[in-house]
Amino acid sequence: MKKPVLLFGLVSAAVAIAGMAATTPLILAGDHAKSDLLGYSAMVLSALLVYFGIRWYRDREDGPVGFGRAFAVGLLITLVSALVQVAAFQLLYFKLVPGFGDAFVACMIDRAENAGEPPAKVEEAARTAATLKRLYDAPLTNAALTFAAPLPIGVVASALSAAFLRRRAGQVPRA
Q1: Residue 170, Ramachandran bin (φ over 0: left; ψ between -120 and 50: alpha; else beta)
Q2: Considering only CA atoms, which of 93, 92, 86, 94 is closest in space to residue 147?
Q3: Model confidence over 27-60: pLDDT tens digits?
Q4: What span, in angstroms and rounded, lies between the C-alpha atoms of 12 and 44?
Q5: Fewer CB under 10 Å: which end of the chain, C or N?
Q6: Is residue 77 classed exposed, middle or buried when 0-12, 13-18 and 19+ CB atoms within 10 A define those classes?
Q7: Where along the chain do its domains lie?
Q8: What is the C-alpha separation between 40 and 38, in angstroms, rounded?
Q9: What's the CA gap between 89 and 111, in Å, rounded?
Q10: Longest Cα separation, the chain
Q11: Helix extents (H) in 30-150
């Protein structure tokens, strides 16, 4: 189980990190719509690697692979990917792009203004953005929040993939 977890976890992380690298200049330039589209697309593609990892594991097992085992493989792939993403984002946030937090605050405020929100909602968005920046400025909460971002998608991808790819005893493997 170790090989597919590491292989697909690292490839999943690479896809997510490529998404981070591609969206960062867009966020800094204020192109929020493109950064959102690219960022969410990278998250979905990254989660898709969970399916391929579980399938790779299942196809190499001689016996039955139940939902629980397949789900565990998917979760472990997700955890490896999320941990690598945390390390990459810490490097990006604290070393490579030190103004990223301020750019993200501006992004949140711009979104509220461009959506035509009333001044009270824009002010609320500014307070929320400032709170998030304070949380992201602390390495431990930055790591926790970054880790939590891909986790729900990975859990759903693991559950759906495990349900779809499980093989019961006596079931003939697909060619």
Answers
A1: left
A2: 86
A3: 888 888 898 899 999 999 999 999 999 999 998 9
A4: 10
A5: C
A6: buried
A7: 2-165
A8: 6
A9: 22
A10: 64
A11: 32-60, 67-91, 100-114, 119-137, 139-148
